[in-house]
Amino acid sequence: ASHSNCNSSMTPLDSSSEKSFRPLVPTVAICVVGFAVLLLHAWRFMPLLVDDALISMRYSQRLLQGHGLTWTAGIPVEGYSNLLWVLLTAALGALGMDLVTAVRVLGVVGNGAVIGAIAFCRPAARWSDAAPLLFGVAAWVLAQPIAVYSIAGLEQPLLAGLLAWALVLLFPVLEGDHTCPRKLIPSGILLGLVCITRPDGPIFTVTSFAALLLIRGIRVQTIRLGIYLVAVPIAFYVGQLVFRLFYYGDFVPNTARVKVTPSGHHLLGGLQYLYTGVLSFSPLSWLTIAFAGLTAIGWPARLKERRARVVPVALAGLAWAAYIVFIGGDIFPSYRHFVPLIVVQTLLFTEFVAALPVGPWLARTKATTAIPVLAGALVLTFLPYWYMQERDIENERSLDEIWEWDGQVVGLALKKGFGDREPLLAVDAAGTTPYWSEFPTIDMMGLSDHHIARTRPEDLGTGRIGHELGDGQYVLDREPDLVTFGHLWFREARERSGKEMVEDPRFYNDYQWVRFVGDDPHTYEFGMWVRRFSTKIGIRVENDTTTIPAYLMNGLPATIARLDDDNTFVVDFSWSEPARIEYLALPPGNQTITVDASCPVRVWVERAHGEEVLLDSTDDFQFSLPGEDIQFVHINMTPVDDVECVLREVIIQTTP
Q1: In angstroms, rounded to a whole number, what is the distance separating the alpha carbons of residues 251 and 457?
Q2: What three-state secondary structure class fits 134?
Q3: Which residues is 524 bridged to in the sheet?
Q4: Distance (Å, rounded) from C-alpha 456 to C-alpha 70?
Q5: Which residues in the chain come in under a pLDDT of 70?
Q6: Which is nearest to 149 in space by CA: 99, 102, 107?
Q7: Strand runs labelled E in 333-462
């Protein structure tokens, strides 16, 4: 392109676009109101914060702590799929912002940026020009996934904002006959940022390049323009690939190894996900699909002039929809993967309204007539749009998913009680408890584990996305100190690693179910499997001394361990709820028991096999185990008086 072409003015689709950078009262007013509605809509879903968001936040957390882009100690893996999001979260954290607040600020800003993109491509110099902007902003802020993921902590808002601006900045180039290649650089930079926001981000670079070829024709000048468009995305993509290879030693992120398992089963699941999502966002979804199709074929003829805007948006939507089907949809509430499709739907719907003769009608109609008609049109358009989303169970899930905040109680309680010992934690839900506890952790489903992500079971492709991998033997071999199953700290195993673990005799020999209660920031009871003879938090055997922490004296179901004022886990026990430990292994010899409790206690000991009572006393806690082999006993204790007592520790001294 010549130098004059670089400085020539572009011919936009409508004359009002020439005033895009002027302070336009209708434009500003609609954007401000739209942003306020977005905030109110998002507030409805507070305090939602999905578990995977806390996985990414743990990477940001550890980066700020000087541990690099890692999730836990050991072999580093790329267990995030949102590099730019992780870095931006860490940047706000470095400025002193709490990371939960940081991801929500980024979410609101990202989705708010889409409102700005709509205003950029359809500004309103007069109120009579405002219908496309008004309806477009309404379509965006009233979509429940947009409200949900403004606060849910994942990268979809950042992706939405970057994608929307990349597309609308591409519009003038596609509408002009002769364009300076440098004017494609802003879109290229934004598409490059999309590439490092998500590993699947290059899809939108490909579709934008394809749109350029379709609109301007396959010729040398177009290829030259395309090079300017894709140069930055390619540089960003290759740069991240090189970083991934040298830092993580892999060509693909760990998340792809776990979640992308193409199969017929997942293909059907992806089709179902796509269909139910399109249905949930009807009638706007069907309307925009029809509008894009008619514009593509140029019928009626007046729609041909809109192809420069419709084609790049529609191609992005088609490619992303195909990708959703390929990966099998998603398991998160409120159609997380539909956020880019809602960007597409919103831009197409804005163009659809612009194609209607609304502006001329408003220009010649009195306000007393125009305002009620416009308000009625808004209600008739968005009432069914709202209703279809409200009745969808996927959107209802976002109102009920608050278990991650119970995980905050779990993580903080464990950190207070065990933090100085840094026990090894094994989890299915790799976000909430690891983030709040900051413990070294095994991700038993493999998102952030090098070994499990590379373990390929024979039935791969037949289960839930991201929940198919596991290796129970590998987890047991690593001897985690704490094990939790499922996302609500279940006693029963729910996923592959856990199911394989409980089938191994080592599990029930080595682990004991313990109930805890935490009270920060609210009260919550939970259970975990504790390794009985963990060197960090279990029964300690040193020379001839066996030390039993109170929380392992929990042989009765009602026993719950709590934190005392010194952040030590203690157990309350009474006549009706004795403290008890079962199948305790002791060496032969004379045994002397010392009880660290807040009251005088009665202790009785019986053999684990045969029910022989070896001790029953309130003052002299001694008994003998004759023979030469390790023997198993049950130890019980109650207060001497009918009071509630606090147990801190039990010590058993063995002498020949």
Answers
A1: 21
A2: helix
A3: 518
A4: 23
A5: 1-23, 177-178
A6: 107
A7: 425-427, 441-443
